[in-house]
Design goal:
Layout: H1 8-17, E1 23-30, E2 36-43, H2 49-64, E3 73-77, H3 80-83, E4 91-97, E5 104-111, E6 114-121, H4 129-144, E7 149-160, E8 163-174, E9 177-186, H5 191-203, H6 207-210
Parallel strand pairs: 2-3
Antiparallel strand pairs: 1-2, 4-5, 5-6, 7-8, 8-9
Length: about 230
Amino acid sequence: MPEERGDPLARRLQRAIEQIEGVSSAGVVLDANGEIAEIHILASPSRRPKQIVRDTESLLFVQFGIRVDYRRISLVQLGPEAMGPSPTRLRFISAVPCPESEAHVQVTLRCGDERYEGVAGSDELGTGARAAADATLSAVQKALGRPVQLTAHEAQMVAADGQQVCLVVVRALTPHGEERLTGSCIVTKSVLEAAAKAALDAINRRLPIWATLPRDQTAEGTTGELSRAG
């Protein structure tokens, strides 16, 4: 059974691969022995596929001492016309208490001319940050329409350089396994807005990869259709 993509080594490999010229996003899946089982790369058409694959092989060997078979590397190249209005370009619109109930938060995102809303319950004793993050991820799932289950594992306020910062940890479950992602945003207007933007910050580099997933797959560890709030 594949190792979770949240594994520290997998995250280090992903970040390194994403530094290669032409690479937009990368995903690494480790097997039960901690060895590379799959590498998924989303890249621009500015470079030849063989060049990107060879750069990936060289980088992994030079930086990590890992030799990987090129057949384990899956590469997808999308031109500007293929991107169009897509879930990879979600924009924040608003994060406000629900008109019907202030105990719930409603977040609205936009993709082209389409709008996606997510709603989540708020902890009356908290700041609403967790609810705003969950509502944001709910809206993202609706926009993606892919087998990706997103939840806010944690959302909290921290002080940094005299400012309040919202930190969000996202748990992403996909057909390739589980991944933990983090995002942050300085609080300027409201905690709800900062939490929503922090959640988007956590996943923005993964959206291009998730947008290429087949719609009929199931997120690992789940059965049937993913549940969505809102």
